[in-house]
Amino acid sequence: MRTTALRAALLAAGVPLLMAASPSPSPSPSVSGAAVPVNDAGTSFLTATALGTGQGADVAASTGDYLYWAFGAAEGQTTTVDVTVTLPPSAQRHGPQSWSVELFDGLRRRQSCTAGPQDATAETAAATVALRCSLRQIRSWAEPWSGDPLPGTYYVRLTAGQVPQNDLGLAAGVQLRLTSKGGAGDAQPEGGELRAPLVPPVNAGSPAAAAPTAAAGSTDRAVAPAEEETHWYSAPFQGRNTRWFWTVGGGTLAALAGVLGYRLTRHPRGGAPRRGPANPGTGQPGSFG
């Protein structure tokens, strides 16, 4: 009713209705199909460059360098890493080159690839070499002895294995793409749950943050550690008594061993020493001197 009354008032005033028309909706901002790739890479696990979901990398590198990237994988996902290496001009190379891509989990355990050429060799005339590694599906829980992939951080390492000595240091280009499919709904129940993802510390070597203090009115108290059970026969062998016990016991045994050895060597038969033979013709014991 307010709209009808407003239109009637505008018509009476001679204002065109176009002025009172509702404004057209503003165009929604366009969403790019892929994230902007990064242009750098780390040289170790600690300096690995982090990649977001669906983000890749376009890096200018040198032949022989170790390149590291890190990305996160959630439960039920299957991630595939595609790497294309643009080799130096064939006129500058002196032989074939072998490249390899590897995946490691948050504990830096090497994960096996289920598909793709993980290792490839490029001949001298080749311009590029393509590598691929498909990670196994991320599980929510695994046995401690198994190497199954778990949710957390994963590392990508690109290396040039067999390269002629004269080709080390030549400029090369690297393009890396990450594609993930699946999610938590695709994960199979395993009868357990991971308490926390395998995410290494961001700033390795930095002091840990102080633990939050308990509130003043909190009734929670820290539980004292349980004391070890002791017995009358084990108490003398624990703590500081251990050193004195073994010192005194060892000294006593050494003294007894010395006395026993002396008696065995001094009087081997345990009798008194025998006198010399009697003087001939007298029947009296002989005397010395």
Helix share, percent? 10-25%
Radius of gyration: 42 Å
In oligomeric terms, what are we looking at? single chain
The largest sheet, given as strand count, sense and whether it forms a barrel, is:
6 strands, mixed
Question: What is the CA-CA span between the terminal residues?
Answer: 156 Å
Helices and strands: which structural class?
alpha+beta
What is the H/E order?
A: HEEEEEEEEEEH
**Share of residues in strands:** 15-25%
Number of helices: 2
| Average pLDDT figure | 75
Task: Give the low-pLDDT segments.
Answer: 1-6, 15-33, 214-220
Task: Assign an overall shape.
Answer: elongated
Number of DSSP-assigned strands: 10
